[in-house]
Design brief:
The chain is an all-alpha fold and about 80 residues long. Helices cover about 80% and strands about 0% of the residues. Keywords: Membrane, Transmembrane, Transmembrane helix.
Length: about 80
């Protein structure tokens, strides 16, 4: 009985460590994505997030896809 508990305890600790590593990696990906968006917006003078969301929602309606293409510029069509 004692050996099973030791094995379970070891597995539990290993899973907690793996979960922590995956969680930290996920946070790193989010922080990197935010950094890339910030760097990209500085280079391309992107409009504000609220304006971008409004344009996206408007362009998601049938027949309005040109709005988002116009915002992104001719090189994105």
């Amino acid at each position: 009985m004692c050996d099973n508990f030791a094995v379970w305890s070891c597995v539990q600790t290993a899973l907690k460590a793996a979960n922590s590593v995956v969680g930290l990696a996920g946070m790193d990906v989010i922080l990197y994505a935010l950094w890339v968006l910030r760097a990209w917006s500085k280079q391309h003078s992107v409009v504000g997030l609220a304006q971008l969301l409004t344009v996206y929602l408007h362009s998601s309606q049938p027949g309005n896809h040109h709005v988002l293409a116009d915002l992104l510029g001719p090189h994105r069509r």
